[in-house]
Amino acid sequence: MDKIVVLASAVGLIGLIYWFFLGKKDEGGAVATDVKIKVAGGYSPALVKIPAGKEVTITLTRTDPTDCLEEFVIPDLKIKRNLVMNKDEVIKLKISKSGKYEFHCGMSMYKGAIVAV
Amino acid sequence: MTKTFPIVGMHCASCAVNIQRALRKTPGVAAATVNYATEKANVEYDPEVVNESKMNEAIKGLGYELVADEPQVQDMKNKEIERWKWKFIVGGVISAISIWGSFTGMNWGVLLGLATISQFGVGWDFYRTTWASLKNRSANMDTLIAIGTSVAYGYSAAVTLLGVKGEPYFDTSVTIIALIVLGKWLEARARGKTSEAIKKLMGLQPKTARVIRDGKEMEIEIEKIIVGDKIRVRPGEKVPVDGVVESGETSIDESMVTGESIPLYKHEGDTVIGGTLNTTGTIIFMAKKVGSETMLAQIIKLVEEAQASRAPIQKLVDVISGYFVPAVLMLTVATFAGWYIFGPSTGSGLAGMLAAIAVLIIACPCALGLATPTALVVGTGLAAQHGILVKDAQALEIAHKINHVVFDKTGTLTEGKPVVTDIKGGDEVLKLAASLEAGSEHPLAKAILEAAEKTALQLAKVEKFEGLAGEGVKGIINKKEYRLGKPLDETDEIKKLENEGKTVVVLGTKEKTLGIIAIADTIRETAKDAVAQLQKQKIDVSLITGDNPRTAAAIANQLGVKRYFAQVLPADKENAVRQLQSEGKTVAMVGDGVNDAPALSAANVGVAMATGTDVAMEAAGITLVNKDLRSIPLALKLSRATLRTIKTNLFWAFAYNVILIPAAALGYLSPILASAAMATSSISVVTNSLFLKRTRL
Questions:
Q1: Looking at A12-21, B272-281, B437-446, which range is the least confident one?
Q2: What Cα–Cα distance (Å) separates residue B503 from each residue in B412, B448, B473, B545?
Q3: What is the dihedral of CA B106, B108, B113, B115, to 10 degrees?
Q4: How far is Cα A74 from Cα A105, in angstroms, rounded to an integer?
Q5: Measured between beta carbons, which residues in chain A are less than 8 angstroms from residue B184?
Q6: Quick check: is B596 catalytic?
Q7: Strands, sheet with A55-62, edge to edge from the N-terminal-most edge strand
Q8: Are B23 and B29 in contact (CB under 8 A)?
Q9: Per the residue annotation, which of B408, B540, B596, B628 is the catalytic one?
């Protein structure tokens, strides 16, 4: 009997883990030219929408000491910044080609994307 | 004193005005100007009355921040390393006592106390980051460690305090924490070393310069130098910005910027590069490029960009890393359930718990994540130290597959400064030829004009001048029509000159040939060596030139090159590259980056020789800052070494997880052993990347 309980709990827990971590959907907010991203246990918001062809300011504030969050990389734009704890890092950019530009931490564990529309 | 500080948090031009006002109101500040575009404040202040932090306070309330000194990031990293070190010392001592205590039967209460300090003191960061991650519905390695150690600690605490049947595992949780913290400490130290090359480049620029304005010499900060300033550089001083020597002569050591090993003699009219070291003499030069325009700034920017780019080989890791931690969490649950259901009839729950903890602890996404970027940072940094600038990770990755290098002849294999070597027909021929070529920008015309200038010949007036596309020129001098251009027929004399690798032009009238002028371009000293080194690396070499086949063959022969493309018009160089590619070759094209742009783009990797102090070559994947052609075999060797490091890193990081996670799940690894393996995995990847520095070049 206890084995059935353990099995059922395990299946339930695995399902919960899947839903919690992999089932999230980030729609992103409205298109903005001044974006603020909080860097703690990931990026929030992780999906930001910006207008293509306009200068945009992205401000990152890191409050999480996790090593890999120290580096912020947008590979397709060849941008890499070191985020000092509790300090705003301002990135000014202008993306002329609309599309999705992924960003991630130094070890590619935490991810997000900029969508230029 | 006057100083410039970066300002953080400006969003519009009015911010600059606000900051300016706030700074000016601060006691001790005499003057302040804030530039929105550069995000910098120039403040004149009395350091005895006001300091950086007071100025920062003055503008902080408005939502801005004044950055006292640039090396903050480095300070932060050093603090981080120091913090991990202390955590390890405390955690290590607790671990040693606990292990000794568990063997000698130390009171469980004391062990619980020690474990609590370790769990929530030394290991507090793991909880903090886990909580931050969970709020974002994400997880990382710290999440796994926090859960793993919490289970071991929680179970042991329950045994001690609640009398749950069994033995406590305090030594497990404290040792895991101590070892992981040790791993983090060593990793942070090693990671700092990967970016040493770029830090060195950043440290090259001096802080001040001796500027002569209105006849007065003064020492000013480097940011204040403007184009056109005259700057004095004395022996032993660094050249502050890029410019051209106006007076004096000296030798300058450019090795730190260009990788050029021998100090170069410089005199009036020569270019000097900011960040290089003046050795013997004193010069005065005029600043031509300042700030972000300087060669050093461009190099740093290029290297930084390359290090931020994504290597195609990284793609798989990127996909995996997104699922890694959740997958390990699911596997942990499955491990426990599996042991509980299918394990031995007694103690299967406990065995399942230990196996599950081992799975959580052994999983190491960090090693995977570090595999490519650390090697890339070391590889591109090392290349930059040798004057090789790699545009991005993709170029570096393709470069290791190159099996054919095609060189553009003029200006690449040769100096690009042709000189007249032979004249048949005397000064009259040279005079007529120079008259016809007067005003032309063509390198051959320049050579003829220079020769005429040297012999102080008076040029004649030319009427009805006409350029004959690809053939030469014609015009009327003293009522007689002359033609200067390619030989129309081949005499033995012409053949002989062409066989020596010279370009021959013939001067004639309609009736007869009057004379011959042979022009040759000096082959670069390093060309032959470069070709030989490439061939030793089993890379085929060919050359492209506009010369006729005989001249091309002669030059190819001098260099030991077997294949050449002769009589190629500039626009057709691209086709030659495509032809090689259609033969199944992976081609690197080496050119000057200006006239060859289409061919460079068409090649798998375009290699451009930087001209002057311009290094940002759009079409090139690799730019050579020095004019040393031996940098090409070096660059290819480096790319192969870097790729090899990336591949070994990825192999070990994958193999580590693929082999040890199942081993842990099946109960073959104790949690303590798992933590020791985990602590060594990331550090071994970083250390392997650091070994790249020892590549024999």
A1: B437-446
A2: 17, 12, 16, 11
A3: 90
A4: 9
A5: 67
A6: no
A7: A43-44, A34-39, A55-62, A88-94
A8: yes
A9: B408
pLDDT digits (tens, 9 = 90+) for B544-568: 988 888 889 989 999 999 999 998 8
Q: Identify which has the larger pLDDT, A28 or A73.
A: A73
Residues from chain B contacting residue A112 (CB–CB below 8 Å):
none
- B310: which chain A residues are within 8 Å (Cβ-Cβ)? 75-76
Domain spans in chain A, listed from the N-terminal domain onward: 26-116
SS (H, E, C) B392-445: CHHHHHHHCCCCEEEEEHHHHHECCCCEEEEEECHHHHHHHHHHHHCCCCCHHH
Nearest Cα to Cα of residue B590 among B650, B548, B544:
B544
Do the bridges between strand A71-74 and strand A79-82 make them parallel or antiparallel, or are there none, so unpaired? antiparallel
**Residues in Cβ contact with B600 at an 8 Å cutoff, skipping those fewer than 6 apart:** B589, B591, B593, B606, B607, B608, B617, B619, B620
CA distance B265 to chain A (A): 37
Nearest to B8 among A63, A73, A90 (CB): A90
pLDDT of amino acid B12: 63
Domain with residues A26-116, CATH architecture: Sandwich (2.60)
Q: What is the pLDDT of residues B240-268, one digit of tens each?
A: 999 999 999 999 998 888 887 788 899 99
Half-sphere exposure of A37 (CA within 13 A, CB side): 31
Of A65, A84, A110, the CB nearest to B73: A84
- Residue B205 banded pLDDT, cuts 50, 70, 90: confident
- Cβ pair A57:B8 closer than 8 A: no
Nearest neighbour of B309 by CB, restricted to A41, A78, A87: A78
**In the predicted model, is pLDDT for residue B71 greater than 60?**
no
**Cis ω for the linkage preceding B633 (within 30 of 0):** no
Give this complex's ipTM: 0.82
What is the Cα B576 distance to its own chain's centre? 30
Q: Nearest residue of B to residue A9 by CA position?
A: B337
Residue among B477, B473, B402 at smallest CA distance from B444: B473
The CA–CA distances, whole Å, from A43 to A63, B132, B197, B316 equal 11, 10, 30, 22
Q: Is A67 within 8 Å of B188 when comparing Cβ atoms?
A: yes
On whether the CB atoms of residues B335 and B666 are closer than 8 A, the answer is no
Residues from chain A that touch B65, judged by Cβ atoms under 8 A, are 87-88
- Give residues with Cβ within 8 angstroms of B580, minimum separation 6: B404, B406, B542, B587
Nearest CA in chain A to B365: A109
Question: Alpha helix (H) ranges present in B105-229?
Answer: 108-117, 124-135, 141-162, 170-194, 196-202
How many of the other CB atoms lie within 10 Å of CB of B629?
A: 26
Which residues have CB under 8 Å from B133's CB, separation 6+? Answer: A41, A42, A66, B139, B140, B142, B143
Structure tokens at B168: 């406590």
**Integer-rounded Cα radius of gyration of chain A:** 18
Predicted pLDDT of residue A88: 84
* Cβ-nearest to A78 among B305, B318, B334: B305
3-state SS assignment for residue B133 = helix
Asked if B321's CB is within 8 angstroms of A24's CB, the reply is no
Assigned token pair, B644: 């090899």
User: Is beta strand B503-508 parallel, antiparallel or unpaired with respect to B404-408?
Assistant: unpaired
pLDDT digits (tens, 9 = 90+) for A30-42: 888 899 999 988 8
Q: List all residues 6 or more positions away from B135 whose beta carbon is below 8 Å from its beta carbon.
A: A40, A41
**Distance, CA of B406 to CA of B397 (rounded, Å):** 19
Question: Inter-chain contact A110–B184, Cβ cutoff 8 Å?
Answer: no
Residue A65 · residue A54 · CB < 8 Å:
no
pLDDT greater than 80 at residue B48: no
Pairs of CB atoms within 8 A across A/B: 135
